[in-house]
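Supplementary Methods. Inverse-folding protocol.

Structures were first reduced to a discrete structure-token string of length 184. This string, shown here, constituted the complete conditioning input.
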């Protein structure tokens, strides 16, 4: 069942976190990963068709914008007990197969997703250099059922403006994806 991202106030500060990166078996903190230009925090997972659709373009976009000083962080908050395809072991496979150039972190307690008010995968938050929310919306208009190829144009537009002006004043369409698989 598809879910839409929740409306969140601009300027809201990014909640801090410390999460496991299964690929390196180390804990990563937001303050160590953030950028003084823009930080993209993405709630994604391994099995959601909406994420699978954009994965290749997401990897390209991240690699491109990282060259401009933008930080990207992927977080999987799904219940891996009831959804074993979202396990930390599978996260390592996805990160390698999709050539993620960003840390892909595991939110086992789901507390980080709750603090961010994340609702779906993908759910994309872009913070400015002060870690204040500048964009919360879709990657682009591509959906598994609409035949549109992923471009990342919505996220690109936001990042370009944030890099240019420090803020984003354009339209922010909510992200649509699979609901986060919450623990009982």
């Amino acid at each position: 069942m598809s879910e839409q991202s929740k409306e969140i106030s601009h300027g809201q500060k990014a909640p801090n976190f410390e999460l496991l990166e299964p690929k390196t078996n180390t804990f990563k903190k937001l303050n160590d990963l953030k950028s003084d230009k823009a930080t993209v925090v993405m709630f994604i997972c391994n099995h959601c068709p909406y994420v699978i659709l954009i994965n290749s373009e997401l990897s390209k976009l991240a690699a491109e914008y990282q060259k401009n000083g933008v930080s990207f962080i992927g977080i999987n908050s799904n219940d891996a007990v009831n959804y074993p395809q979202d396990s930390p072991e599978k996260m390592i496979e996805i990160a390698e197969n999709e050539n993620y150039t960003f840390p892909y972190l595991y939110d086992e307690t789901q507390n980080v997703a709750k603090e961010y008010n994340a609702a779906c995968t993908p759910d994309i938050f872009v913070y400015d250099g002060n870690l204040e929310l500048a964009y919360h919306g879709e990657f682009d208009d591509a959906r598994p059922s609409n035949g549109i190829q992923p471009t990342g144009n919505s996220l690109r537009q936001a990042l370009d403006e944030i890099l240019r002006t420090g803020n984003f004043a354009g339209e922010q369409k909510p992200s649509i994806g699979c609901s986060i698989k919450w623990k009982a």
